[in-house]
Model the fold of this input.
Amino acid sequence: MTSRKAIRHPDGLSSYLEERRKLVERALARSVPAASVCPVTIHRAMRHSLLAGGKRLRPILTLAAAEACGAKDLKNILPAACAVELIHTYSLVHDDLPCMDDDDLRRGRPTCHKVFGEGIAVLAGDALLTQAFGLLATIKAPQRHPLSRLLAETAETAGSLQLIAGQVADIEAEGRKLSLGDVRFIHERKTAAMIVLSLRLGAMIANATPSQLKALTDFGRSLGLAFQILDDILDVTATSEQLGKSAGKDLKAAKATYPAVLGLEAARKEAEKTTRAALRALQPLGARGERLSEIAEFLLKRQG
Ligand code: GRG
Done:
């Protein structure tokens, strides 16, 4: 995949991912009110979806981007790592609602509205999104990237220009024949934008230089697109057990996906090509980008 020689790390990628995932899980459990806090229904619903064991890709990228920019102490990075996971989880809770994608299974569990009802699920999503900004407000940001910048970028990414724009385009695409450009437009907003944000928040809190920030932004755009192309492919090739969500849904709903437009083989090639572009984007970071390269290559091979 890459011509660069792999640099040895004291711990392998899988133990790194496992250790970071545990760190994120502990921080997430503290990031929202306990299930016993009144009103208990909403906090149980938030925790049901948030603590259901997703891959935690976005927060891990936040931590890895900060490390790639020289951060040693991750304590000040964790609120941002949790914030991106809260926003991501909110989008999943709302996307699963009957008025959106109407799904029963997420992260291997019944979806939020299946357990708590639609009203509480809407509110749980709202509360997760709101709490994300509360977490960001606790960050000690460096002078180069003030807190107001971090908050503004997060609001723009979660708002009507990116994440919601992607969802709107996805809804309006139903029943229409889309070009590859249309599908890419949706994927860049629905998926890649949050991945770019995850990396940029970690980098900015670690006081990234302009060239480090640019490298990580370019990396995130390609990684995010490759991740979604793979997600499209796995919808066709993997089982619901492997995915922890309903497989074959895109196909059934005639969704805008890379395999639908290009076919499975060409979609696979596109995912590889886009991953290679992601790896090239990391070159300005030198050895410090090696962990992120490993993550990108690992994601290309994922089965769920
Ligand atoms: C704003 C309501 C609303 C929706 C935004 C994110 C989104 C659009 C819809 C969710 C469904 C979907 C297919 C999103 C694309 C991004 C994606 C691949 C999400 C799943 O991410 P993973 O695989 O999930 O990282 P886990 O559960 O591991 O965190």
